[in-house]
Amino acid sequence: MAMIPLGKLRLGVNIDHVATVRNARGSAYPEPVRAALLAQESGADGITAHLREDRRHISDSDIDGLMDALTVPLNFEMAATEEMQKIALRHKPHAVCIVPEKREELTTEGGLEVARQENKLAHFIAPIRDAGCRVSLFVAADIAQIDAAHRIGADIVELHAGAYCDLFHEEKFEQSKAQLERLREMSAYAHSLGLEVHAGHGFTYDTVKPVAEFPEVMELNIGHFIIGEAIFVGLPAAMKKMIDLMNEARK
Q1: Domain count along the chain
Q2: 82 Cβ neighbours under 8 A, 6+ residues apart
Q3: Which of 17, 50, 57, 150 is catalytic?
Q4: How high is the pLDDT of residue 103?
Q5: Residue 79 near residue 53 (C-beta atoms within 8 A)
Q6: Annotated catalytic residue: which of 17, 57, 77, 229?
Q7: Which of 119, 160, 212, 231 has the highest count of CB atoms within 10 angstroms of its CB?
Q8: Residue 11 lies in a domain
Q9: Given this model, what pLDDT does residue 110 score?
Q10: Residue 77 is among the residues annotated as catalytic for this protein
């Protein structure tokens, strides 16, 4: 099998939880757009923002501001609803990432169920792709979901890395290692189908390097940990350490 050259690994910074802090007090600050611009200045290759149906963090006006202010790509995360499709088609961001969404969850708990709703999702993403947006599907590292994503015409799969990361931090290292191997295998498989491979959810300084080493992975989307670390060291410093670890893994 031919070796895949290790190209630059992109970092997408998710700024959702800047909005979470803002909304805890119902104030106008801290501003997610300001955080996004600082992340952009500090080396982010893209910004991710999830406009949830319940608007618990990012708001419609945040998306307006991000589209106006950013010079790096916006990865617009959203559920597969008619309302969100209309918003995506109005803004036409660089990328639209379809994620599962449940009202009661604290954060996105699992991957999108593509295989059981292929027809619905195929029709849902078609106008978004026609509008010039790259379509990403946030899926588990599962062959059935990746096959379905490929069949319906997704450009990208973002593999849910949460199980690997969570098990590592729970010190269940053998189980974490098994999840890491699954991510490795499914990254290679998705790439073999012609899908661009991203990964996200749960990465920290301790868990990022093993996945960053996968040659098929082109982008990592990291938010909660970076924003949390920024409370203590500032956003540029928190990002620099993450970028340094990612770059070390690619050498």
Answers
A1: 1
A2: none
A3: 50
A4: 52
A5: yes
A6: 77
A7: 160
A8: no
A9: 72
A10: yes
Contact 77, 53 (CB under 8 A): no
Contact 148, 114 (CB under 8 A): yes
pLDDT at 7: 73
pLDDT at 6: 61
Judged on CB neighbours under 10 Å (0-12, 13-18, 19+), 211 is buried
Asked if 160 is an active-site residue, the reply is: no
Residue 121 lies in a domain: yes
What letter represents residue 57's amino acid?
H
Q: What pLDDT was estimated at residue 4?
A: 57
Please, are residues 203 and 222 in contact by the beta-carbon 8 Å criterion?
yes
Q: DSSP character for 31? A: -
pLDDT for the residue 109: 61
Q: Is residue 21 part of a domain?
A: no
The CATH number that applies at residue 185 is 3.20.20.70
Characterise 43 by phi-psi region: left (phi > 0), alpha (psi -120 to 50), beta (else): left
Given 17, 91, 160, 201, the catalytic residue: 201
- Does residue 106 lie within any of the structural domains? yes
For 131, the domain range is 33-250
pLDDT for 251 equals 85
Q: What is the 3-state secondary structure (H, E, C) of 34-56?
A: HHHHHHHHCCCCEEEEECCCCCC
What are the structure tokens assigned to 143, written together?
């062959």
Structure tokens at 78: 């959203």
Q: What is the pTM of this model?
A: 0.93
Told to judge if 94 belongs to the known catalytic residues of this protein, a careful annotator would answer no
Asked whether 249 and 212 are in contact (CB, 8 A), the reply is yes
Cα-based distances in Å from 107 to 28, 119, 122: 23, 26, 25
